[in-house]
Amino acid sequence: xxxxxxxxxxxxxxxxxxxxxxxxxxxxxxxxxxxxxxxxxxxxxxxxxxxxxxxxxxxxxxxxxxxxxxxxxxxxxxxxxxxxxxxxxxxxxxxxxxxxxxxxxxxxxxxxxxxxxxxxxxxxxxxxxxxxxxxxxxxxxxxxxxxxxxxxxxxxxxxxxxxxxxxxxxxxxxxxxxxxxxxxxxxxxxxxxxxxxxxxxxxxxxxxxxxxxxxxxxxxxxxxxxxxxxxxxxxxxxxxxxxxxxxxxxxxxxxxxxxxxxxxxxxxxxxxxxxxxxxxxxxxxxxxxxxxxxxxxxxxxxxxxxxxxxxxxxxxxxxxxxxxxxxxxxxxxxxxxx
Length: 338
Description:
By secondary structure, the protein is an alpha/beta fold. It has helices at about 25-30, 30-45, 65-75, 100-105, 120-130, 150-160, 215-225, 250-260, 265, 280-295; strands at about 15-20, 45-50, 80-85, 110-115, 135, 170, 175, 195, 200-205, 205-215, 235-240, 270-275, 300-305, 315-320, 320-325, 330-335.
């Protein structure tokens, strides 16, 4: 069972948000979105500090593993910094693991936020530094939204950063997975089209209480399975979501089979599964059948189609925080402030 994690201090007006690029070079590739994200953070009364190597472009990563780790260390050392925010995800944050000083991170706790490939760092920070982190919006992808950050995303980010009360989460009334080419700046031509939300979906009723743990399904199975950052998932409310690569139901079936054979679903108290990116209605139905089948032996409660991960808007969820789930009534809440 996970021991009580370190919960960083809440954010206050005038605090500094450090921007890091632990994987993909999005600041260099899409500066217009980075500037929109910066403007949003400044509208919250915050200062923004891109770290020295965050704006680099070394192919599919922003910089060397050592340089990316140095940025994280410098951000955690800086007493003015309250939030260390990932610019975006990628596929190579695992390269940082041998270079991270977890003692430094533990002794200077701050909010760390990101999603997708940042799952590796979320798990490593919790496993090795005991730090609770936020699975939520990144600078370029969500906070760089045109013409403004989606209200639901803004609502739950503010609750996680500034809030002092336990949070009861609700489904978004509308959502999108439309992609407007950032490279061609098509995202500045018009807002993305939103479609009506249909609420969260019960795949198996039941109740659970436990720490929220999880992240991107592919990242968990590619980079964390068998690693020293693997977490104790006993009694956890596990959250999983698929990436913008839109793995097919057959691929998801293989990933979930891995977790089933590791007895993850036997150990977990409940499962939250995010709304899939890039699926049509028929594909979604097959996906939910796969999730139901792979978790049937464990019999744990499962709530699906949540607003977490690669569709927008998205929740900001504190990993390691104790939550209560009622999959039958489709309710999810925190037992203490994030």
